[in-house]
# Entry
Amino acid sequence: MFRPMRRSRQQLNDEETLAVLAKGKTGVLGVIGEQGYPYTIPINYVYADGKIYLHGAKTGHKQDAIQSCDKVSFCVIEKDDVVAEELTTYFRSIVLFGRARKLEEEQEIFHAAEVFGLKYHNDKKSVEKEIKQEWNSLSCIEITIEQITGKESIELTRARAL
# Structure
């Protein structure tokens, strides 16, 4: 169903791939937008419970696109170092495909908002207070991962082999 990675020597193993996803702060969400045009947006996220959680406004381009088609892609870049003298970039990133859904139940919305907030701020009381303040305008999206791959530049792969 999904293509295998062409340069499989550079593919990260599952543990390394999930570590990039867990550690990242910003990803790029890709959806099928209006009139079939791709729509991508950089967005903060959290990886928890084997899923990705996002939050945002209750209405807008992202919400409309997900309502229309739940298939999404998501990309996280961990390393992006241009090495001018080698005319290359030392990179490490992940790309995943999955299904997105707007969370509807209060309990699941609260859980998503809480794990999201705790990723960026470790004071649970402050996070809960913020969730309560923003509750009426809060919308959370959950992405169920169907396929994920990680990749790094050949230079990083070679350096690890030493």
